[in-house]
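Standup notes, protein team

Yesterday: finished cleaning the Trifolium subterraneum set.
Today: pectinesterase structure.
Blockers: none.

Input for pectinesterase:
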Amino acid sequence: MKSLQSFAFFLIFVVLAFDICESKDCSNPFKTIVVSQSDTSNFTTIQSAIDSVPTGNSQWIHIQISPGVYREQVFIPKDKPCIYVEGAGRNSTSIEWSSHLNATFVTKANNTVANGITFTASTIFFSMGKYGPKKNGVITAHERDSPNDTSGFVFKNCNISGTGGKTQLGRAMGPYARVIISDSYLSDVVRPEGWGPREFVGHEGNLTFVEEGNRGPGADKSKRVNWMKHLSGSELDKFLNISYIDEEGWISELPKTIFI
Ligand SMILES: *[C@@H]1O[C@H](CO)[C@@H](O)[C@H](O)[C@H]1NC(C)=O
Ligand SMILES: *[C@@H]1O[C@H](CO)[C@@H](O)[C@H](O)[C@H]1NC(C)=O
Ligand SMILES: *[C@@H]1O[C@H](CO)[C@@H](O)[C@H](O)[C@H]1NC(C)=O
Ligand SMILES: *[C@@H]1O[C@H](CO)[C@@H](O)[C@H](O)[C@H]1NC(C)=O
Ligand SMILES: *[C@@H]1O[C@H](CO)[C@@H](O)[C@H](O)[C@H]1NC(C)=O
Ligand SMILES: *[C@@H]1O[C@H](CO)[C@@H](O)[C@H](O)[C@H]1NC(C)=O
Ligand SMILES: *[C@@H]1O[C@H](CO)[C@@H](O)[C@H](O)[C@H]1NC(C)=O
Ligand SMILES: *[C@@H]1O[C@H](CO)[C@@H](O)[C@H](O)[C@H]1NC(C)=O
């Protein structure tokens, strides 16, 4: 009886401990940071707003980007999770970056979400290195090093377009990289294969690159890499849930509903 009691106590302890760990993931309430090119009392670049997020952050940070064309590379380091980058709509806010070495938007952190932004790649694209095709660029690079990482990079209602070359949607920067692009417009700037495994050739099974509900000439999936993931019914339902931006609810649910 005694041992049964201690076992029950132990179980309760485990459940509570687990719960506390989970809720620590990304906490509410949101802290909002405004980026604006016209109101200079705010941050004027997206990167400076990200730089202002404290390392080890665990609160959702909502970076609200006012209309404008932001010519910068965006980099979110590992120790700054829980960042939600929201544009003023894909016809109003765009991020343009061209580099032969770097992706437009790089995140190494858990729980990064982008919504309502146009990502534009322009000029000439060059080889990304020995694994990349020549004349090629890339929009996203996501790093996820463990199956336990709740990290993922979600693009919604975005517009991926560009001129002067072709680009991949993403390349794996970690063996479990995870990028989801949905309800977005993809121009013919997107290369038919869509995605690249980088040095994880032969281990593509653990990469999660998903495209659902996109349109435009670059959204044709018929020539995509054959290891792309397709979300099944209930997974997709959960995923589609995030299209309803509800600041009181969904975003705090995101790591649980989408990534676990
Ligand atoms: C930043 O922008 C917001 C909304 O546009 C405005 O209310 C605020 O006064 C601006 N300045 C600072 C320092 O936040
Ligand atoms: C953006 O512009 C395109 C093309 O003009 C239009 O079809 C689309 O509805 C617009 N989207 C939004 C969210 O305003
Ligand atoms: C690529 O981005 C990383 C992270 O922002 C930076 O440290 C590096 O200098 C960049 N490289 C180039 C060639 O721009
Ligand atoms: C993932 O978590 C499980 C359960 O907590 C643990 O057993 C496993 O070692 C972890 N895997 C990695 C790669 O960290
Ligand atoms: C992401 O979250 C998982 C636990 O949910 C943690 O083990 C991992 O270290 C985190 N990754 C980063 C880059 O912080
Ligand atoms: C996407 O962005 C490009 C470049 O800004 C623009 O020309 C195009 O009309 C946009 N398309 C949609 C459907 O939003
Ligand atoms: C995927 O990751 C697991 C560990 O979580 C590993 O055992 C497996 O070999 C990996 N699969 C591939 C195809 O690399
Ligand atoms: C979204 O998820 C929440 C919580 O999991 C659920 O209550 C709600 O019904 C879902 N909404 C849709 C449209 O699936």
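Follow-up from PR in the comments: Residues 242 and 250 are 6 Å apart (CA to CA).
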